[in-house]
């Protein structure tokens, strides 16, 4: 069950209806558009009908004409050109796009990508000096360079011209490059300022080739999606076209990449890029030299491409293993070191941690603890700690780090992520400072994870056609996020654990004739936390399940929420204690018995102390209760429930000798048995009761009970098993006997609680929670 704060935003219904009518789209698609800010008809229409008109003239970019002239001159003079890229997927695809275009034009061109561990990000003085020594006359940076002032100045001193193409945030002082091509320099000159690095490189290729280079658009789609830039305007068209081209791509490298990713070409989507292609391209630069990835992207040989694709896949597996190990080690530090675990900002550092994956590990810790997190790798030889930060809503990581410039050698980033370097001896100081700052910045509520649901839907809106139609809105990504659907307060009709280890769950949701299948991977635990018949809200993704030629809508569960209490039915002999104990969070649960005999019976079966309920004494209970047996009377249980108001009730209701099916002896039975005893004067119960029971067809227990009633009312005496009639006893009603009243109560309790239908039992509990007086029948 969720521990998150659900924020459900309902799109303006009038806007939704207007888009449905004017654009002829279904409810779900209209809700997505309104939730994403496209609430006006023409604005939404333009978004849906994105086409080649979204491609802007590359010469609108400042410096494009000068760059084309200088590059063409270099080609004519056969000057050596170096494309200087970056080690992530955007940088690799940027380098590939521009190198492909320059090779088409006959250029003498090579590429270089800095080593993350040796050179760091951006222009490197070492590599620029080497380029000059190797005879390079023109360096073109892609996806970097806007902050490389000093290395670019050195290149110029060495007689090398530099063209910068970049998209990152420019500083106040720009580098002294020959040409700078940047979609936001100057501001608002180019119609769309959110191109990825590969998008800027593609615009340069477009200008150089004199035509729209459609054969390179697959690379643009990969780099743009992987770099998480807004999928709007020109980016949206380039990605949409690129995804279409990827499904029939002729690039042998991309075919090989799809194969090692186990993705059929015709099924490639933006999610394929985000979860399969991007991580494999990023992995090589995270662990070592990224330059071979460009050779791979430009490869024309199938065997070579297949071999290199396998290397990328191996690197990605290695990266996963490193991340897994580092995450485990980081969690151990958090769990075992009080000064770390009690801080509101987690700062963990360890010698030997790979700086290429610290950002991923930081994200994992944020997912687990929902605290701003910094993960640092310590370099003892250099005496520094270098790493990455990931934050949560409400804590501006860049702003908070900015207050600690005196202990930071270098840092940069934005509110949700940052990178930094500091002296290793200042790590503890930074942790203490950030914790103190967080006490001001973060409220207790800020430390509860948020789940934003902006596309609420009802089950009657969901069908295969509606889900298929939402693909017309793709690609989803930054600034046009894939919707997280919310289905509010529906019922679970049925559920069962699935999978070899029963760690997944399958449900059937709905009410009033509606139905929707739902599946939760790694959510088998929900079977032990939810019950049927309560109102439950679900968040997740809507997908189409195709099986044996049939297509059915299906919800892939992300999160579950309910405000209702849960009743778990553990009644009956088949519910063995050892079995249902496995489904209960024992440490969070109070086990309650109403009778001392029950405590004795269960004390060796329950691995926790059992609470014997006492109406006269104030006792402490958790919000999870296991009711081991039946109360003495219903009001006893009702009072307990009203006091505790539990979130979960596990009803076992063990009874050693149930009476309901045996029932109460009739008045006629009492009369016959008393007459029988009166005629005999005395009767050896111990020796002859079985014969009498067999003769009358009554149970032995029934006869014992009637004998006990007579004894309590002083109609008989019993001595060593011999029942003797009392002469002229006081007249007293059978019903006045305490044992009779207790049995009557016991039978009523069994009928009401032990043998009732689940729905009726829940209704009885519900009546207790609402503090309504129990009816005469129930009392």
Jot down its keywords.
single chain, 779 residues, alpha/beta, five-stranded parallel beta sheet, five-stranded mixed beta sheet, 27 helices, 40% helix
Structure description:
The protein is an alpha/beta fold. It contains 27 helices and 26 strands. The protein has a five-stranded parallel sheet, sandwiched between helices. The radius of gyration is 37 Å and the shape is elongated. Mean pLDDT is 93; it is low at 775-779.
**Main sheet attributes: strand count, strand direction, barrel closure:** 5 strands, parallel
Can you count the beta strands? 26
* Coarse shape: elongated
Distance, first to last CA: 35 Å
Question: Layout of SSEs?
Answer:
Blueprint: E1 5-8, H1 13-23, H2 27-35, H3 41-48, H4 64-76, E2 80-84, H5 89-104, E3 108-112, H6 125-133, E4 136-142, H7 149-157, E5 161-165, E6 179-181, H8 197-209, H9 217-226, H10 233-246, H11 252-260, H12 270-287, H13 291-297, H14 302-336, H15 338-341, E7 346-351, H16 358-369, E8 373-379, E9 384-390, H17 397-402, E10 410-414, E11 417-423, H18 427-441, E12 450-453, E13 455-456, H19 464-470, E14 485-498, E15 504-509, E16 516-520, E17 535-547, E18 550-561, E19 566-569, H20 577-580, E20 589-593, H21 596-602, E21 610-612, E22 624-629, H22 634-644, E23 648-654, H23 667-680, E24 682-684, H24 685-696, H25 700-712, E25 716-719, E26 722-725, H26 738-754, H27 758-769
Parallel strand pairs: 1-12, 2-3, 2-4, 4-5, 5-6, 7-8, 13-14, 16-18, 19-23, 20-21, 20-22, 22-23
Antiparallel strand pairs: 8-9, 9-11, 10-11, 14-15, 14-17, 15-16, 17-18, 24-26, 25-26
Helix pairs in contact: 1-2, 2-19, 5-8, 5-9, 5-13, 6-7, 8-9, 9-10, 9-12, 11-14, 12-14, 13-14, 14-16
